[in-house]
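Trying the structure run again after the queue cleared.
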Amino acid sequence: MSEFTILPLSSIVPAADNYRRIMDKKSLKELTESVKHKGVLQPILVRPVKGNGHYEIVAGHRRFQAATVAGLADIPVMVKDLTDEEALEVQVIENSQREDPNPMDEAVGFARLIEMGAHTPETLAAKLDRSVGYVLSRLRLLDIPEAAQKKIASGELPQGHALLLTRLKDKDDQKALLKAMLEDTGLTLAGAKEFIRRHFSMGLADAYFDVESCAACPLRSRNQVELFPDLKKTDECTDRECFFNKTLGHFENLLEEKKAEGFKTFTDPKDIHPLISSDTKATRAITGDKKEADWRTEVPRRYKSECMKCTEHHAYYLMVTEEYGGKRIQSGEICLNRKCLNKMQHPEQFEEKASASGPNPQNLRAKARECRDRFLLSALPAKVAENVTLQKRLSLFRLMDEGGYRTLVGDDRRPPFMQSAPRGYMDARQLYNLIARVPESSLDEVYLAVLQDLMAKTDTDVLLDMTEEAGIDLATEFVMDAGFLNSKTKAELAALVADLGLAVTLTGKEKKGEIVAAILALDLVGMKPTELVEVCAPFNPAERASRADGQQVCDICGCGSNDPIMEGVKWSAPNVCENCKETEGLRVCRVCGTYEPEAEAQEHSEEWAKPNLCADCSMNDPALAEEPVEAAEAQPELVEA
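Done. Tokens:
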């Protein structure tokens, strides 16, 4: 039964257990101003309080508060008898139908209704006309750290970002993710998901233990699809502690099985480290899986037939170590007889000698190769110098060898002549023999193709220094691209338009993509904002070296006297180092540092009062020209910085 009436404000009290704690002060102020002028237009919902004649607010707390501040004496109400469960349900429904309900208020309200037994997530979702995932996402917000809940309530943390915290069980992991989201204000939702994948997720497909026990775990990604639909095709675990313990349990069981079979086992890191160290000559880490082998681990040739049966020298180990980022499980196998392993892997090194004093066949082969190599290095250079084709093949080989072409796997960077080569790694001889089959007439074409391909791996500042000789004038030819424009914010694009005086009209309502399209439609040749002018500036050796105060700077190479690479280098003048003087053949004034190629200086010898004194310095101070040459040469060669 319900009744519409007018009640004095003094007879109405707020609900003692009102779950809504967060109100927008600005909107409340606006509502108060409206109430002052127009009154309360929509009745609030109240229920009688037994025993004292008062009424408790069920819905309309903001209107009641605005009426109180506005100084009204009474307020229109709808009186209705409601139980606690019914009152809470009305409050929750009324709040959820608002335009922008606070997620944390909703979370508290939903949780109370379910705790009372009035609803399940499914029935509540139907009552609210929302999805079950919507209700569950609000409920999960109550499980995240309190600091994060406050950030959601204040609007500082987007709900989508905050909900990702519920994917993690460990509180420290939650705090680390929250810190990353708050410090990196530009972290997108996709970026936050990738952060979880890289730092807190373990792939169950690669798990050592039986994952059947994880079938219903709420922290398994495939069980969170209702909240995170993008996890439908993933199978990851975000409970790192549980994953660690199950993995450790798997290896502990395996170690016990090997121990029961008679194999030696080790679990103390102090015992294990010396046995698997690459420095030890008595033992060696081994494995039967080639995928697990590296330079520290060997795969015995007769692993299955001999090593797996050798309980005397075949051992297993398991240890847990503390490393950066947490604990790490290390498990593996050890051969305790390195000598036996070496004989198995390299039998040719242990061949019996031909006689008691006869040479070792291995040594004979090594010495023969050395003799051959000495002959090749003495005979080939002269022949290559006479053979242009060989010069091209050798240059092409060196270029491709340094460029990483021996480790190419796919077809995306393979030159046509390499299409028939086997995939994966190839040795140097394989690469050269492919080059040797290239027709002589095609060598130049192949060389240029490889060279252009490798330009993408060249230091881009070096490419900048090539532009002048290539005939590219960055001052007049450079053009901004879409990538540069898209990297800017709308405000930065507006500043760029103003800075360059571009014919683009901005009202402030355009989308970023529209601004970029409008700029790209213009003729942008030669137009550069300040940051592009700086990075497109040509090489200036003097500016590069002048960043350290009090040092000499060579006008030619740009090196400063304080640079580590110039240690011990003499200076013939304050601005020309001895290296450049000798290399360029310069005549250098010992006073001002002016330099001139020796050939030109000889032609204009009258302009030089002495071999190391220019005419200008001589005219400015005639006394310098009168100094004996010996005195001039006695000047310090290095002017200390």
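The longest strand covers residues 314-323. Worth checking whether this holds up in the mutant runs.
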